[in-house]
Amino acid sequence: MRAFDEHLLTALDRAESEDVVFEALLAAARELGFEHCAYGLRLAVPVSNPKVITLNNYPKAWQERYQKAGYLAIDPSVRHGSLSQRPLLWTDDVFTSTQQFWAEAREQGLRVGWAQSSLDGFGVGGMLTLSRSGEPLTASELESKESEMRWLVQAAHLSLSRLLKPKYVVHPDVALTPREIEVLKWSADGKTAAEIADILSISIPTVNFHIKNAVLKMKAANKTAAVVQALMAGLLN
Predict the structure, then answer these.
(1) pLDDT band at 180 (very low <50, low <70, confident <90, very high)
(2) For the residues 47-68, what does the mean pLDDT come to?
(3) Whole-angstrom Cα distance, residue 115 to residue 95?
(4) Which residue, 73, 143, 174, 209, shows the most beta carbons closer than 10 Å to its own?
(5) Residue 167 or 230, more confident
(6) Residue 89 pairs with which residues in a beta bridge?
(7) Which of 175, 200, 174 is nearest to 187 (CA)?
(8) Is residue 33 predicted with pLDDT exceeding 80?
């Protein structure tokens, strides 16, 4: 294992907060020749409006402007990351449709950038962006560093999702019983109470009883919400 990877893995394994993880990522980014590092984590819940958590060391003025102007909704790099996990190199063509946004970013020293997104089996998505204000990212530099940059994307996602997801995903105060989990699994597959009753050789009222208990334990509004929350919490795997 290369020293770069080994040092970072040690730091991430010992990290007990997202701030510690980000500092380790920022140190790695600087070692790769970038002055700015940003990571955005999009949770899968609430489904109608997933929560987005961001960590970065961008200039304060740019952070405030980005939030106030609602630039998250129009940022082309974010849009690309939501559609593809291919790396994206910032170019004028990427920001053709958002020239004002691009001009403001460049004024704040965000001129050269590279980004890549990731997605895990729980529907949690993330994107790492490395950027700087100086020298362009040449083909030869990219060739020599991209494997470590891609590795950094995965390391960032694993560490930050490990620390942040439990803060926002619902975990029941009282554990679901094996039967409640079984009923929710079949519900997740679209089975009706009658079908679940046949599959498990129990009565329909018994199925509904387990569903009701699971909904209460997950503090959910209904069966559908309970299924989604249980899936996101990894309780149905």
Answers:
(1) very high
(2) 91
(3) 14
(4) 209
(5) 230
(6) 114
(7) 200
(8) yes
CB 87 within 8 A of CB 146: yes
Distance from C-alpha of 38 to C-alpha of 156, rounded to nearest angstrom: 10
Distances (CA, A) of 83 to 80, 106, 232: 5, 24, 21
Q: What is the 8-class DSSP label of residue 194?
A: H
Q: Which residues does 225 contact at the CB level (< 8 Å), separation at least 6?
A: 215, 218
84 vs 75: CA distance, rounded Å: 14
Q: How many Å apart are CA 98 and CA 106, to the nearest integer?
A: 12
DSSP reduced 3-state for 202: coil
Domains along the sequence of the chain with CATH: 3-168 (3.30.450.80), 178-232 (1.10.10.10)
Question: Tell me: the pLDDT tens digits for 81-130?
Answer: 999 999 999 999 999 999 999 999 999 999 999 999 998 766 778 999 99
Amino acid at the residue 89 = L
Task: State the pLDDT at residue 2.
Answer: 59
Provide the strand spans (E) within 43-104: 52-56, 88-89
CA angle 41, 44, 49 (to 5 degrees): 95
Decide if 81 contacts 127 (C-beta within 8 A).
yes
